[in-house]
Amino acid sequence: VWIAPRNPFIASCGSVPVLIFFAITGYLFWSRAIRSGAKIDVRSFAISRFFRIAPLYLFATLIAFFLAWQSTGYQWHGDFGETYLAVSRLLSFGAFRIDFINSVDLMRITAGVAWTLVYEWAFYAALPILAWCAKLSRFAILASLTLLILSILPIDEANYASVFLVGMITA
Q: What's the CA gap between 67 and 10, in Å, rounded?
């Protein structure tokens, strides 16, 4: 069972490398988009991202589901709505967070490591649109969409999303 560390330095040892990963991801994918003349094969891109994320996510989540079930003595404690929500979110492969299964907090089992996937999937979904907007004549559209998206996100989520932009700007 995982509990968040009290020491701020140790607590940031998980999130800071993730932010660096986001910036590197933004840089690498945007560099590739620029080199290809802002053309992304959406189908092959989506398939490659899916097969990079989904297998390990599915494996780890199924283990967490099993541990949650085991921690309740193999007794059913959850309601149908909670189970339906958890299974449907499982099938999103991290695009939506799973909080509880069988009334057990999965964050305490997984340490919440899948939180990054929400931002990754959003970036991967936005990248083809951003690449389309990347042509010089479409720069105003890109800037407007970016400002709009960042303005409607809660402050923490806008901060995480903006780290991808930092990488993209450096490309």
A: 26
Residue for token pair 């010089």? 136
Buried b (16+ CB within 10 A) or exposed e, 8-44: eeeeeeeeeebbeebbebbbebbeebeeeebebeeee
Q: Please, are residues 26 and 165 in contact by the beta-carbon 8 Å criterion?
A: yes
30: closest CA among 101, 106, 128, 118? 128
Helices (H), 72-114: 80-90, 107-110
* d(C-alpha 12, C-alpha 10), whole Å: 5
The per-residue pLDDT for range 17-71, each reduced to its tens digit, is: 888 999 999 899 988 888 888 788 999 999 999 999 999 988 988 888 888 888 8
Helices (H) and strands (E) in the chain, counts: 7, 2
CB atoms within 10 A of CB 124: 21
Contacts 24+ apart (CB under 8 A), 58-61: 58/90, 58/93, 60/110, 60/113, 60/114, 61/90, 61/98, 61/110, 61/114
Distance (Å, rounded) from C-alpha 98 to C-alpha 112? 9
